[in-house]
Amino acid sequence: MSEQARLNGNGSAGTPQTGRVLPFTIPARSARGRVARLGPALAAILGAHDYPAPLCQLLGEALILTVLIGTTVQKGEGQTTVQAQSKGGPIDLLVCDYRAGEIRGYLRFDPERLGEITPGALLPDLFGAGYLAITIEQSADERYQGIVPLEGDTLCHAVERYFTDSEQVPTLVRGAVRQAEDGSWEAGGLLVQHLPHGETGGPRLAARTDSQDWEHVLALASTITDTELTDGHLSEETLLWRLFNEDEVRVSPPIGLTRGCRCTVQHFREVLGRFPAEELAEMHGPAGTIDVNCEFCSRMFPIEMRD
């Protein structure tokens, strides 16, 4: 692993920060995990669309889960994508992705059915019949996808099922999103995994859930509260100290998070350049440009195609 530091009794290596992921391991318990806070990136993503509060909360949960998964499994410049697609519910599409510290996301919904989205609504109430797909792209030639049903109370529960069924790794996932009194949104999350036989960061063996070490870590991690996860004044180091001060916890250098929509005129030109000339001619608008809408940042790009 990268250079690590041990948590001390103060529980913090510095002043509280936001917009970052703090990886950690508990070597004696064969466990590893991440604590994440989205920070200003969340406001930038939510501000691109006029989402009602329940959908801001849902998308915030999806974004924090994408970060937790992406920083756990991603290597190098690859990308992790979390996508929920469904039929029959007020929400029919949700997409988030993470790449090298950059996150983005959006969701599509039926405005006429917002009344169906009530506090405490379960996943089937929000999405109808659908699935959650998690795609890991390490490189152009290395791609893996796991799919689980959109069942259970929250997206966190669906992600736990993904790790249990697809990865066969006992996992606890917690995510929390709240709106502050000033109207701003805050999101935080915790992911903890058990890697059998002390192989933290090494090859994964068949999952075992009858481990006393894992039961110990699971019991402590389960005490985390939504308030602690979303409290930007509570540093990630202090949070880990509160949870696991009975054990030696080692933290790796944090990973900074920013909003990173990768839409550019050059990128759109390259994509459009793959279409036949006849189809491109049909795409041109009255002004002679092809207008491309980026759903992630809600911006329109008028593209002039050069001969």
Write the layout of secondary structure elements.
Elements: E1 5-6, E2 20-26, E3 31-37, H1 40-46, H2 53-73, E4 79-88, E5 91-99, E6 102-109, H3 123-127, E7 128-139, E8 142-149, H4 155-167, E9 171-179, E10 185-194, H5 212-221, H6 226-230, H7 236-244, E11 250-251, E12 255-256, E13 258-259, H8 265-272, H9 277-283, E14 290-294, E15 299-303
Parallel strand pairs: 6-13
Antiparallel strand pairs: 1-11, 2-3, 2-11, 2-12, 3-10, 4-5, 4-7, 5-6, 7-8, 9-10, 14-15
Question: In words, what does this structure look like?
Answer:
It is a single chain. This protein is an alpha+beta fold and 307 residues long. The chain contains nine helices and 15 strands. Strands 1, 2, 3, 9, 10, 11 and 12 form a seven-stranded antiparallel beta sheet that branches. A six-stranded mixed beta sheet has the order 8-7-4-5-6-13. Strand 14 (290-294) and strand 15 form a beta hairpin. It is globular, with a radius of gyration of 21 Å. It starts with a strand and ends with a strand.
Order of helices and strands: EEEHHEEEHEEHEEHHHEEEHHEE
Give the overall silhouette.
Answer: globular
Share of helix, binned: 25-40%
Largest sheet: 7 strands, antiparallel
| Computed structural class | alpha+beta
- How many helices does DSSP assign? 9
Tell me the total number of β-strands. 15
Taking all Cα atoms into account, the compactness measure Rg is: 21 Å
Q: Which regions are unreliable across 5 or more consecutive residues at pLDDT < 50?
A: 11-17, 200-207
The percent range for strand residues is 25-35%
**CA-CA gap between termini:** 50 Å
Mean pLDDT: 84
